[in-house]
Amino acid sequence: MAMVKDIDARGMQHCETTALGVLLRHEGLDLSEPMLFGLGSGLSFVYWDSKAMGFPFLGGRVKPFELTRNLTAALGLDLLVGETTSPRKAWQNVAAPIDAGRPVGLQLDSYHLDYFTTKAHFGGHIVAMYGYDEQDAYLVDTGPQGGAVSTSLAGLARARAERGPMTARHRSFTITAPGDPAPPRDRIIPAIRRCADAFLNPPIGNLGHRGIEKAAREVPKWLRRSDDPGEDLPRAATLMERAGTGGALFRNLYRDFLAECAQLIDSSRLRTGHTLYAEAAALWTQVAALVAAAGESGDAEHLVRAGALLHELSRVEREAMRTLSLL
Hints:
CATH topology of the largest domain: Four Helix Bundle (Hemerythrin (Met), subunit A)
CATH architecture of the largest domain: Up-down Bundle
Protein name: DUF4872 domain-containing protein
CATH class of the largest domain: Mainly Alpha
Order of helices and strands: EHHEEHEHEEEEHEHHHHHHH
Oligomer: single chain
Number of helices: 12
Distance between the termini: 50 Å
Largest sheet: 7 strands, antiparallel
Domain DUF4872: 155-324
Low-confidence stretches: none
Domain Butirosin biosynthesis protein H N-terminal: 14-142
Helix content: 40-55%
Pfam families: BtrH_N, DUF4872
InterPro entries: BtrH_N, DUF4872
Strand content: 5-15%
């Protein structure tokens, strides 16, 4: 058995921030989950649909692992990433740091993890691994998934080897803090501006504020878009509210990040941004409830109301990000 000592196996709301929290606390950096998310410029929006998809997907954050790259760059941390097509090399990339006393982050497909009771493929799931024995791997996942958990080595290998949307090639990573890491307070404004600039200037129309406006036009058609609205629409609402988003499609996390920042930096723009994201978070929760109600009742009026709220959300979030971009 190999086990990293003194692991703080604190499960948070979102998988990537949970893993980052484990790795950073091991390096002596203990940041709140909203601060991890915000310093990683994690907030975004995508409306994703294609002929190959059974139903559209609404995403509220940057793509998997981009948050990790953003956060470590912002704080001046050393990020060492391993990717390989070889299962043998992939195991070596994990076992070696654990044997040396360092936890490892993994990107994998949650479908194959023993402790996941909801079986759905998601190749962008991220966990921290801190130990193993002859049969099992010892992981830290989100609080709703159990925090400190274990899965079979065979299941872990399948999860890491899976190919498909958002998967990586057995990706693993470690984080090392230099002797004088950048103070988190000094990196707040650059991280906020980076997030705002990306949101306000998306390269394509289904991202950022333009993506929310697209969702406003498309969501009212969802009863016709779905072959099984009683299943698809409640699932979409659950993904927005409870599937590792922290609620309100990650807007609760960003709202709380801005509130924490406003305690550290005296800025009217920060306070305005926080007020607007508090409004946006409440509206997203209402949208999710309306989408679920439409699926359960078959009444399209719920989706018409959701579309109207999404138009308002595009305006509110655009105003918030324009204000924050001026920090």
